[in-house]
């Protein structure tokens, strides 16, 4: 049983914050992961900076651009996890573009993630053929492999996405780009629809910005993913680590 499976098997609703590796610095990334783990984060998504992020709104895109300008590479993100893995009980998921996976060696890159202590991977822009191949390799090296379901994904495709996924599915609360929102769509009926097609846990993201949103989402879903709201707070703060810890405390 993977760490991700164990977390979802606890019957506890999971909080999944997202940060960008190397933003504002690689040192603050390391410190923030440790702080959020102690503050109650169940699974932490670590975005590996990419020059053309897929579906990310202006806050996360700017954070990735800043990290790249500061010289942050996938190796830096892997190094952070390798250094702190034994101190962190939360699951650690890599969010990374398919082009980075391919450029860094494909299956060899997945093995590096696993050896460093990552528990799973999300590749939001992967094509179907690559998805099947990499899903199989993730299974062999102990990583969960998560695909995304949009509000317009039809049932037949949901069933296929679930069949090649493990750990959990990422359910988008809305179409468009990531970003903070003041309101949240009612996702309960969509969650019911997806549950009829798979037994995998369902984590909801895109626009989850407040404690109220987290509570609303987890009435029906198994986890809430909070990204832009956290990244913005870290961007604006004099002490990004404290900002991350305080926000996770508030959300959890």
Describe the structure.
With 252 residues, the chain is of the alpha/beta class. The chain has 12 helices and 9 strands. It has a single domain (3-251), classed as Alpha-Beta Barrel (TIM Barrel), CATH 3.20.20.70. Helix content is 48%, strand content 15%. The protein has a 9-stranded parallel sheet with strand order 5-4-3-2-1-9-8-7-6. Helix 4 (74-84) runs parallel beside helix 6 (107-116). The longest helix has 14 residues, at 26-39. The two termini are 25 Å apart.
Question: Which architecture would the CATH scheme give at its second level?
Answer: Alpha-Beta Barrel
The side-by-side strand order for the widest beta sheet comes to 5-4-3-2-1-9-8-7-6
Form type: globular
* Biggest sheet statistics: 9 strands, parallel
What is the β-strand count? 9
CATH class: Alpha Beta
What share of residues is helical? 40-55%
Strand content: 5-15%
Work out the count of structural domains: 1
Quick overview of this protein structure:
Helices cover 48% and strands 15% of the residues.
Pick out its properties.
single chain, alpha/beta, globular, nine-stranded parallel beta sheet, 252 residues, TIM Barrel
Give the topology, please:
Layout: H1 3-9, E1 14-20, H2 26-39, E2 43-47, H3 58-69, H4 74-84, E3 91-95, H5 98-103, H6 107-116, E4 120-122, H7 128-141, E5 144-146, E6 148-149, H8 155-164, E7 169-172, H9 188-195, E8 202-205, H10 211-217, E9 223-226, H11 228-236, H12 240-251
């Amino acid at each position: 049983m993977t760490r991700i499976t164990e977390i979802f098997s606890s019957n506890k609703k999971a909080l999944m914050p997202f940060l960008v590796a190397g933003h504002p610095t690689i040192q603050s990334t390391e410190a923030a992961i440790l702080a959020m783990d102690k503050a109650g984060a169940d699974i932490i998504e670590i975005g590996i900076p990419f020059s053309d992020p897929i579906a990310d709104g202006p806050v996360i895109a700017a954070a990735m651009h800043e990290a790249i300008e500061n010289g942050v590479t996938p190796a830096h993100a892997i190094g952070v996890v390798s250094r702190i893995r034994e101190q962190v009980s939360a699951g650690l998921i890599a969010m990374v573009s398919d082009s980075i996976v391919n450029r860094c060696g494909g299956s060899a890159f997945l093995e590096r993630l696993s050896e460093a202590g990552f528990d799973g991977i999300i590749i939001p822009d992967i094509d179907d053929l690559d998805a099947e191949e990499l899903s199989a390799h993730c299974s062999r090296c102990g990583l969960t492999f998560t695909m995304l379901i949009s509000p317009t994904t039809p049932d037949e495709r949901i069933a296929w996405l679930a069949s090649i996924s493990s750990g959990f599915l990422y359910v988008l609360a809305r179409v468009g780009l990531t970003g903070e929102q003041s309101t949240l769509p009612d996702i309960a009926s969509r969650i019911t629809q997806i549950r009829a097609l798979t037994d995998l846990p369902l984590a909801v993201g895109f626009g989850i910005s407040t404690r109220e949103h987290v509570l609303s989402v987890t009435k029906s879903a198994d986890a809430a993913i909070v990204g832009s709201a956290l990244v913005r707070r870290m961007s604006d703060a004099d002490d990004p680590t404290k900002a991350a810890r305080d926000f996770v405390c508030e959300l959890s």
